[in-house]
Amino acid sequence: MPERARYTALDNGRVLAHGAGKAAGEGTMTAVPYQHILVETDGAVAIVRLNRPQALNALSNPLLREVAAALEGFDADDAIRAVVLTGDERAFAAGADIKEMAGAGAIEMLTRGRAEVWERLRKLRKPIIAAVNGYCLGGGNELAMVCDMIVAGEGARFGQPEINIGIIPGAGGTQRLTHALGKARAMELILTGRPFGAGEAFAAGLVTRVVPDEACLDEARALAREIAGKPPLAVQLAKDAILKAFDLSIEQGLDYERRNFFLLFASEDMREGMAAFIEKRKPHFVGK
Ligand code: CAA
Q1: 58 CB less than 6 Å from ligand 1?
Q2: How do the domains of the chain map onto residue ranges?
Q3: What phi and psi, each to the nearest 5 degrees, are found at residue 244?
């Protein structure tokens, strides 16, 4: 059952959630009102929903900042081991908020601090699964790609349509789509802005699972729950090493992996995992 005790719905539809900067282990909760997202927890899994349906969850600055704050809050919360980020049945997110950007100049875009928010998302340590239904376009696709895995409903529509409004992807699309799909496909999709479906996204390796639309969130939640049952430090160091594969040479990457591997031999969970195997019992992982 989802636990909502720490996330109180207010009369005006806003939600109170724990503070974004809460350090792991701190006992106090700071009430932070969210206006553009909804958050809940289900055991060790947190669910963050974009909640701006009137704009197809377009990523306005306030919305994106709330997403970063909520995800950082869960990243620092020892009780949470995996996060699902989702939208609604019509849209995961239809991109950056075009109305917010339309009148901006280059220096204003530079100094809005939006790049820093994307960097905060990139630095999250816990696994994040995007559950995508409907439109997943432009910055929406970039948000899904900054997550660690994408579970898609079969009706999901992906794309980088920025070219159609005179710009290019500005939050990682040219890089992450190219890493995921290869140069030729990324080039075609970004230069034409052509939307593509969940089947094509799956075939190209962008998404990990395609399920019926109505099963998307449950599937992502089940995947998150499965990962939440694994030793948290090993999960985080595996994520860390996998992401390094995009930055490092194979030699540097193998060295990096080895260091994370050795580091886990300092963890209680490694002792527990191996002891449980030898004693033929289920392990109990504590994240230490
Ligand atoms: N920004 C702001 N508002 C948006 C939006 C966006 N990206 N996408 C949709 N909306 C708004 C619409 O303006 C509309 O609002 P109003 O009712 O007030 O007019 C509402 O959401 C519903 O949208 P539509 O009426 O357009 O719905 P539709 O079903 O006819 O079309 C759509 C859906 C094809 C997704 C269409 O809305 C669309 O093309 N949206 C823009 C997609 C896009 O270009 N995204 C990239 C943005 S740039 C970017 O993301 C840069 C980056 O890399 C960071």
Answers
A1: yes
A2: 3-228, 232-279
A3: -65, -20
| Residue 101 to residues 108, 141, 142, Cα–Cα distance (Å) | 10, 18, 17
Distance of CA 188 from the midpoint of ligand 1 (Å): 22
**pTM of full prediction above 0.70:** yes
Rounded to an integer, the average pLDDT of 183-199 is 97
Flag whether pLDDT at 21 surpasses 50: no
Please give the pLDDT value at position 32.
59
Q: Where are the alpha helices (DSSP H) in the chain?
A: 61-75, 98-101, 106-111, 114-122, 139-146, 173-181, 183-192, 198-203, 216-228, 232-244, 250-263, 268-278
Catalytic status, residue 24 = no
Instruction: For residue 162, indicate whether it is catalytic.
Output: yes
pLDDT at 233 over 60: yes
Instruction: Of 19-28, 127-136, 179-188, 211-220, give the lowest mean pLDDT range.
Output: 19-28
Class of domain 232-279: mainly alpha
How far is 62 from 64, CA to CA, in rounded Å? 6
Span 3-228 CATH architecture: Alpha-Beta Complex (3.90)
Instruction: Give me the mean pLDDT over the 108-124 stretch.
Output: 94
Q: How many residues does this entry show for the chain?
A: 288
First to last CA, the chain: 26
For the ranges 108-112, 149-153, 228-232, 265-269, which has the lowest average pLDDT?
A: 108-112
With 0-12 / 13-18 / 19 or more C-beta atoms within 10 angstroms meaning exposed / middle / buried, residue 222 is middle
219 is catalytic: no
Give the model's pLDDT for residue 33.
Answer: 80
57 burial (CB, 10 Å; 0-12 / 13-18 / 19+) is: buried
Residue at token pair 């996330």: 7
